[in-house]
């Protein structure tokens, strides 16, 4: 699993070193972040499970392990909640946006 941290406020040229292409990969939006903080966590390749992504994001924002199970990934376009064992196939053609 390759992890890439890019903020929505970055320009395309700033994102080249971080993400393979603007909009590529799986993005998990963090709606509660402040204006100066990153707006999403991006994954550009690999096969992480929904649980692995939730734990990764929770660790990055300081949520304790006791509370990891309180979070899940949601796709607002399809109105679908992903179970913890759902595996995402992330490649160069993936353009998925989820909410935590």
Q: What does it look like?
A:
This protein has about 100 residues and is of the alpha+beta class. The chain has one domain (about 1-100): Roll (Ubiquitin-like (UB roll)), CATH 3.10.20. The chain is about 15% helix and about 25% strand. It has two helices and six strands, in the order βαββαβββ. The strands form two sheets. Strands 1-3-2-6 form a four-stranded mixed sheet, with no helix packed on it. A two-stranded antiparallel ribbon has the order 4-5. A hairpin with a 4-residue loop joins β4 (about 75) and β5 (about 80). The longest helix has 12 residues, at about 50-60. It is globular. The model is unreliable at about 1-20 (pLDDT under 50). It comes from Sphenodon punctatus. It holds the Pfam family FERM_F1. This is FERM domain-containing protein. One of its GO terms (cellular component) is cytosol. GO terms for molecular function: growth hormone receptor binding; non-membrane spanning protein tyrosine kinase activity.
State mean pLDDT (0 to 100 scale): 76
CATH architecture label: Roll
CATH class category: Alpha Beta
Rg from C-alpha positions?
13 Å
Number of domains: 1
What percent of residues are in strands? 25-35%
Main sheet specs: 4 strands, mixed
* Number of distinct helices: 2
Shape: globular
- N to C succession of SSEs: EHEEHEEE
Name the poorly predicted regions.
Answer: 1-21
- Oligomeric state, counting identical vs distinct chains: single chain
Helix content: 10-25%
Structural class: alpha+beta
Could you provide a short overview of the structure?
By secondary structure, the protein is an alpha+beta fold. It has two helices and six strands; from the N terminus they run E-H-E-E-H-E-E-E.
